[in-house]
C-alpha cells in the first residue's frame, strides 16, 4: 500500500509545520500591516511569541492534524477505532463482537451393545496442550445415547469466546472426567455449526467497509453477497470465493466458504443458503448456492534435525510443537502465526520452513519430503502428517 505523505500535503497547502515557519508567517503578517518587529533570538517578545504561538501551532499541525486527524479521515490510512467505526456506520456496518464456537462432538459407546447412556449437560471435552493452552467445549443439554447405537453427536459450546476454539478434526478428544459407558470422544471434520470469533479487528472491519462501497448497487453482484455473508460472525471477506461460469446452468454461481480453522458444518451451510435463497435475499433471477470450500488431502512429511544440546523430553516437545505449527498452516488451529494454505495459490514449503526456524530455536535443520502445492478452487488439508527426528528416526 502506497504511503500518503500528509505532512507534504499540509506544507503544499501553505500551512507551516515548523516553529520557524510559523514565526516567519507571523513576522510577514506584522510587516504587511506596516509594523516593525524585533526578531532577535534574544528578544523577550520574540521568544514569547515562539513559546505561546509557534510551539503550540506546530504541535497542533504535526501531532493533531498530520498524525491524527488527516490519516483517520480516509479508510485506507485510518488506525483509530472510533474513526474506523464511524466510517463503517456510514455504510450501515458495526464492528462484529466476539462469539463462542458451537457445534457437535461425537461420543462413542465402550461396549458393542448395551443400555441407553446418559451424557449430562456440562460434560467437558478438551484438547491436548497446544502451544501452552488447553481448549475445552461443554455439552449444552443432557443427551441420551440410545440402546444399540454405537455413537451420538452431542451439541457443545466453547468454554470461552474466540476463533482459537475452531479447531480441526480430532482435536477435541479428551474427557477430563469419565462418562459411564463412554470409551472415547472426538469432533468430526465438519463439526462447527457456529464459528467462534474474536472481536473484529480494524483491518477486517476496514475490508468489510471497503466492500460496502461496491455493494451499494441494487444488483446482486459478488460484493453484495459477500457483504451479506460476512455479516455473520466468524466469516471474513477474504475467505469467501465465488465460482461463476454457470456451474448449474445460465445465471448460476457458487459462494465457497472457508474458515480460518476447521470446516463449516452442513448445518451452517444450510442456514446461509436459507438466508440467501429461501428468505429472499438474492437478486432477481439469481441462483447462488453457498457451499463449503472443497478440501484436498495432502500427505506432509518433514524431517527435523534438532540441536544436539536438547534433552530427550525437549526434543519430543519440539517435534510435537512442529506438528501443531504445520497443522496451523493447514487450517487446523490458530495457535501460531503461520502462513496458511489458500485456494488459487501456491503454498511454499520453503517459507513454512523459514517460519519453523523462526518459531523454534531448537531446530538445527529440516528437510521436506514433498514440493510446493498449487491449489485451484480448493484448499489443501493434511491427509497424513509425519514428523521425523533426523538424529534418531521417527518419534
Entry summary:
The chain is of the alpha+beta class and 395 residues long.
Q: What global shape is seen?
A: elongated
Radius of gyration over C-alpha positions, nearest whole angstrom: 29 Å
For the biggest sheet, the summary is: 6 strands, antiparallel
Total helix count?
Answer: 9
Order of helix and strand elements from N to C terminus:
HHHHEEEEEEEEHHEEHEEHEHEEEE
Descriptive notes:
The two termini are 45 Å apart. α2 packs across α3 and α4 (81-89) runs parallel beside α5 (202-214). The protein is elongated, with a radius of gyration of 29 Å. It contains nine helices and 17 strands. The chain is α+β, with helices and mostly antiparallel strands. Helix content is 31%, strand content 22%.
Describe the SSE topology.
Elements (H helix, E strand, L loop, with lengths): L5 H7 L6 H14 L11 H29 L8 H9 L12 E8 L7 E3 L4 E3 L9 E4 L3 E3 L5 E8 L23 E5 L5 E3 L7 H13 L7 H8 L10 E4 L8 E6 L8 H13 L8 E6 L2 E12 L5 H18 L16 E2 L1 H11 L3 E6 L4 E2 L4 E11 L3 E2 L1
Parallel strand pairs: 10-11, 12-16
Antiparallel strand pairs: 1-6, 1-7, 1-8, 2-5, 3-4, 4-6, 9-10, 12-14, 13-15, 16-17
Please supply descriptive tags for the structure shown above:
395 residues, six-stranded antiparallel sheet, Baseplate J/gp47 family protein, single chain, Barrel_Baseplate_J-like, elongated, four-stranded mixed sheet, 22% strand
